[in-house]
Write a structure and sequence with these properties.
Length: 250
């Protein structure tokens, strides 16, 4: 139970392999620009890398992989890039769901679906239902997601459903309404593309994640890069507020 608790007092059991990896897949546009290609060519190549990283996670025993595909701020991009991304997402969903299902991978989406085309919302629901019973790896794709939106929607739903709690509720009460209530918090957060920021990703859940930043652009993120991130994680001492001496004594 402590594993899924959202309290910063909870100490998750950490093995060598992170149980949950969350990734900001950044750098697609720059990858394309370097090759004198349109930005969208980088997004296309990025989908191939997603496929490979899902395979690596499944093979290494990672149980949860969460990918930031489109942020609530990405609507500010040029309209043609936004619509390309939406189509790419729809296409990838259609093409990959069968393979995910065959490989016992559960697919989930998090984010505010209210701005999506109803056809896309239906496809998402269908893909989630089809893979719901799979338990090798849970792949969560964050689309039109924002960490602040998530906390706000959780708060609103909690108070609507349990008005008695308005005066006093716990972290656990709120966490049950967050989009990722079904998963432990990320052990390892990776951001490619060189920026060292969280860009409104999983604000609540990253409280005690190990952060890993790499200059490598997402379309260049390969098995060697994946392993480098895991090795870096394995060298960290996760103290969760305690001292090193206490960890040795445990
Ligand atoms: C990440 O790559 C993909 C999305 C945000 C959809 P970018 O498109 O942000 O690539 P850069 O940061 O401009 O290189
Ligand atoms: C973050 O990347 C969002 C996704 C990868 C989906 P951005 O490229 O949009 O982030 P900023 O704007 O540089 O912070
Ligand atoms: Mg970017």
């Amino acid at each position: 139970m402590a594993l899924f608790s959202s309290s910063t007092q909870a100490i998750p059991i950490t093995g060598d392999i992170p149980q949950h990896i969350a990734i900001i897949m950044d750098g697609n546009g720059r990858w394309a620009k370097k090759r004198f290609l349109p930005r969208v060519a980088g997004h296309k190549r990025g989908v191939e890398v997603v496929r490979e990283v899902v395979r690596l996670c499944a093979n290494h025993g990672v149980k949860y992989l969460t990918l930031f595909a489109f942020s609530s701020e990405n609507w500010r991009r040029p309209a043609d890039e936004v619509s390309f991304l939406m189509n790419l997402f729809m296409e990838a969903l259609q093409q990959e769901v069968g393979k995910l299902d065959e490989n016992n991978i559960c697919l989930r989406m998090i984010g505010d679906c209210s701005r999506f085309d109803p056809a896309l919302v239906a496809k998402i629901a269908e893909a989630e239902a089809r893979t719901a019973g799979n338990d090798r790896l849970t792949l969560t794709v964050a689309v039109n997601y924002g960490g602040r939106w998530d906390i706000m929607q959780a708060m609103k739903r909690l108070l609507a459903e349990k008005p008695d709690l308005a005066q006093s509720f716990t972290e656990e009460d709120l966490a049950a309404y967050l989009s990722m209530h079904y998963a432990p918090e990320p052990d390892l957060f990776i951001r490619t593309g060189g920026e060292q920021r969280v860009s409104n990703f999983l604000l609540w859940q990253l409280a005690y994640s190990e952060l890993y930043f790499t200059e490598t652009l997402w379309p260049d993120f390969d098995e060697a890069e994946f392993k480098r991130a895991i090795v870096s994680y394995q060298q960290r001492e996760r103290r969760f507020g305690r001292t090193s001496e206490q960890l040795v004594a445990d």
